[in-house]
Write a structure and sequence with these properties.
Length: about 425
């Protein structure tokens, strides 16, 4: 395969990864972060980008090492825990959080800015997920075409907004941030995009696409994914940086109570008027639809596989759409509130197992995986309960707590203890 062909594939795949990662949360969180971080907007942006783009890239490479197989990624902690964790991850990007958010965001950023609040959210999400069902059960090339056209269009639209906001700032950041631990907040909001889980959910699709392009050797696949992933992450970082900065320029206009989904819409209107706001609303709505279709398909494939094909793909699509439509009626803010406690517990063990994949040839003992992942869940659960259970308050004083990684040091210690115990290694396929 020629270098010219490889370079073209890398850029093509890089833009595809960007489109896969860039969804509703990627637009909602950075501008709001800029508002509450004020003069420390860059610190918030750094935390957000690390937890979103950084972990997503790591997960893409990890899933490549596992040939796109979720159970191989999580299998070393045992079959039942692996199923539970993978199920939790897929449900987060599926009907529980991310897919409903696409419907809620379409209403709040696509419908409300144009039609106001006269049209009930229930009607909008029912239509939105009916379209998702139709276009997911019977895939059409229309979706591929829309996705290929829409992503560049959305990037151009956002770039125009950002450049306009940089050249002619709407204001200056507040003197001090509205929150403490700005970097930690960036990390937590980066978790909220759940792009790390998206990488896991579509892992098999990524590998199949590479194979169809002629990249059949594992080293080739990993090399292409790393380079394509870097391109996607650089693109994400540039957009995030611009959006976070735009938020900081209106931090004297809005406070913490502002509706997150409305920030970028309001900024666009101030910079480019009603026409800019309407164009953004339409582009965001279509982007949310393509994201919903892609994630619904990936979730339905996983659920059907989990049932050993006893439940058909079509029925799984129907379940996802009905559940997501019901959840979407809570609105973006309601979904964010529900997501926080779930992600606090689910993210750490997923990160631990993603990192350990890179050492799977060196670490022969399954106990390292079990001890490390188990400890991350324990510390994260204690962190979640610490506001209600004073005895757990000590976890907020652990190393790296101010960065949102208070589970890291205990997890490393637990992994070392697991190595000492020398648990018998099991073949992943039989785990």
């Amino acid at each position: 395969m020629s270098n010219k062909s490889s370079l073209k594939d890398i850029f093509t795949f890089g833009f595809a990864l960007f489109a896969m990662f860039f969804g509703a949360g990627n637009l909602i969180f950075p501008p709001y972060l800029g508002i509450i971080a004020g003069p420390q907007w860059f610190t918030a942006f750094a935390g957000f980008t690390f937890a979103d783009a950084g972990l997503a890239l790591l997960a893409v490479i990890a899933i490549a090492y596992c040939r796109g197989e979720i159970m191989e990624l999580f299998g070393r902690i045992g079959r039942v825990p692996a199923i539970l964790l993978s199920f939790a991850d897929i449900m987060c990007v599926g009907p529980l959080l991310v897919i409903p958010r696409t419907g809620a965001t379409t209403y709040e950023m696509g419908i409300m800015p144009i039609f106001g609040e006269g049209l009930p959210i229930v009607i909008v999400v029912v239509i939105f997920f009916a379209l998702t069902y139709i276009l997911t059960v019977r895939p059409s090339k229309v979706i591929d075409i829309v996705g290929q056209v829409l992503t560049p269009f959305l990037i151009v639209a956002l770039s125009i907004i950002i450049i306009k906001g940089v050249v002619s700032p709407l204001g200056q950041p507040t003197a001090t941030p509205m929150i403490d631990e700005v970097f930690k907040r960036g990390i937590m909001d980066g978790y909220q995009t759940m792009d790390c889980f998206v990488s896991i959910a579509v892992g098999s699709v990524l590998m199949l696409t590479l194979s169809n392009k002629g990249y059949t050797e594992p080293k080739q696949q990993i090399s292409v994914l790393i380079k394509a992933g870097l391109i996607a992450c650089v693109g994400l970082g540039l957009i995030y940086g611009g959006l976070t900065y735009l938020g900081s320029t209106v931090s004297t206009v809005y406070d913490e109570s502002v509706k997150q989904s409305q920030v970028i819409v309001n900024i666009t209107q101030m910079l480019l008027g009603n026409t800019g706001k309407i164009v953004l609303a339409i582009a965001v709505s279509l982007a949310c639809l393509t994201t919903s279709i892609g994630l619904t398909s990936a979730t339905a494939e996983y659920l059907s596989m989990l049932s050993k094909n006893k439940v058909s793909y079509a029925k799984c699509v129907l379940f996802v759409c009905i559940f997501a439509a019901a959840a979407a009626t809570m609105g973006v803010s309601g979904l964010v509130k529900i997501a926080n406690p779930i992600l606090t517990i689910v993210y750490p063990p997923s990160i631990v197992l993603i990192v350990l994949v890179f050492f799977k040839e060196k670490i022969k003992s399954d106990m390292v995986y079990k001890f490390a992942a188990g400890m991350s869940v324990i510390i994260s659960t204690m962190t979640l309960l610490s506001t209600k259970v004073p005895a757990f308050g000590f976890v907020n004083s652990l190393p790296l707590a101010s960065f949102g990684f208070n589970w890291m040091v205990p997890t490393i210690i637990a992994g070392v203890l697991g190595f000492i115990f020398k648990g018998k290694s099991k073949d992943v396929a039989n785990a």
